[in-house]
Sequence to fold (372 residues):
Amino acid sequence: MSVSVYNLLVLFFALGAQGLLRIPLKRTQLPDSIDFQTYVNNVKTYNNGPRYLKDYGYVQYLGEIGLGSPVQKFKVLFDTATPALWVPSEKFIISQSSSFENLTDCKVSRPYTAGHFDALNKKDVLEIGGASVKSQAFELVTAGFEGKTFDGIFGLAYPSPSPVCGPEVIPVQNIKDQGIAPAVFSFRYNIDYVNPAPLQVGEVIFGIDKEYVDESGLNYIPLSKKANWQIALDRVNTFNGLAVCREGCQAIIDSASPVIAGPVEEVNQLYQHITGGCSYHNGTYEINCQNLKFLPGLVFTINGKDYDLDAEDYVLKFPTRFGTTCISSLVGIDLPEKTWILGDAFMKRFYTVFDQEKDRVGFGELKDDYRH
Fold:
């Protein structure tokens, strides 16, 4: 058997019968309610809130990739709001990889969370979901990664319109160009915050898994801005009638943000209609867990279709020594053009598809067996 045929067989069995590239997502650390409250308060007061939204390590879902030959493994955050693959220089040992390529000594400084990353452009073999991607460009971070709860960032956004160091070879496009998977990927979550075990809580899938969702039930929305998966939002309202974003607004679908964020004034209006023992504390709304079934749901109308979230969907549950604390994931933060951010708290309710080939985002109901 030739090497090329052998490699094709290995890839076939790694991808499975549907030809899907799968990366399991795991939460390795339990959330803490006090830490979450501090995080949200920082988001609301920090002068660059959109980036700070990602810097909360207790409600993040990480997947494993590898770089180099032999492979060096990293637990990375899959981020739809950045295009590049980043790993810190202290964790990737250049001398241990025989396939390493010194792409360029061009230095890159990128804003991320509450600061900047300084990095150098490099290339090596990427191992992801059982497949090998040759000559994958990545940014070797030399400063700014200190204190992060993950080993790297796997960017899933479109290429930067004005790259500093020449054309970007982003992972999504490179995977497609090498015939491994389409430039279409999806997220499926299965999350139980109160379960203390570090179990798998979902997957990033290159392609669409028909086991989880009926493709005919996927509703696609064209992008209004490619760079950060931005779409038009028709309105937001509660089940009991209050509506905000009445004349339409914009929303970013962000896999690396744990919350749902909207303009402060509009979020405050929504909370006036969310009853059931809400108490404001340190930037967040704490809710009596016994009253969740009485709280109104939220409805996000997108491209003419309603996407409903029950209180069980938008309220995060944190285990404590005395039981469970319930805190709303809906936070107020003023972004340009009154833009909303629909993060994991929204995405976990639906099967979410990001399609770079047709410049669109799709949402579909998970099949009954896979709803959390």
About this structure: The mean pLDDT is 82. Helices lie at 3-15, 33-45, 49-52, 171-177, 264-272, 311-314, 344-347. The first strand starts at residue 21 and ends at 26.
